UniProtKB/TrEMBL annotation:
Organism: Micromonospora endophytica
NCBIfam families registered for this protein in UniProt: SCO5389_fam
Highest taxon, organism lineage: Bacteria
Pfam families, alphabetized: KH_NucS_shadow
Official protein name in the record: Uncharacterized protein
Length: 130
């Protein structure tokens, strides 16, 4: 299961649309490692002039790795995180999360990061089973 959904939030979802803030709070509580990682790269980006900020530190364990994979593999979770933090997220391997400024999506840097070549160059033997 990706998220721990309270009975109240589930009831609200059964009744109609959910506000982003409610969903984001559920993500924050359910996937704390993923939340911390995305929060950190988004904060690093906002406090710099860099085109992007990224996390190259592998998760400490399988639970954390699973949280990151679930957060970034879900369109709903990923897009809500992007809206919340005002960034475009990019993902390589099982841990390399990058936050780009939305305007950078058309940049060469972004295109290199999400390219097949970028993916291949970011491989290493210790990450094969991630």
């Amino acid at each position: 299961m990706s998220l721990t959904v309270s009975p109240e939030l589930l009831h609200a979802a059964e009744s109609g649309p959910i506000a982003d803030e409610e969903f984001v709070a559920c993500v924050r509580e359910s996937l704390p490692y993923a939340w911390q990682t995305v929060s950190r790269v988004a904060a690093e980006l906002s406090s710099s002039d860099a085109e992007f900020a990224d996390n190259e530190i592998p998760p400490p364990g399988e639970e954390e790795r699973g949280q990151l994979l679930r957060a970034l593999a879900s369109d709903a979770i990923r897009s809500s995180l992007e809206r919340h933090f005002g960034v475009k997220l990019a993902f390589q391997n099982c841990h390399r999360v990058a936050a780009f400024r939305p305007a950078a999506v058309d940049s060469d840097t972004y295109r290199r990061f999400i390219s097949v070549r970028g993916q291949l160059l970011n491989q290493s033997p210790e990450l094969r089973n991630c």
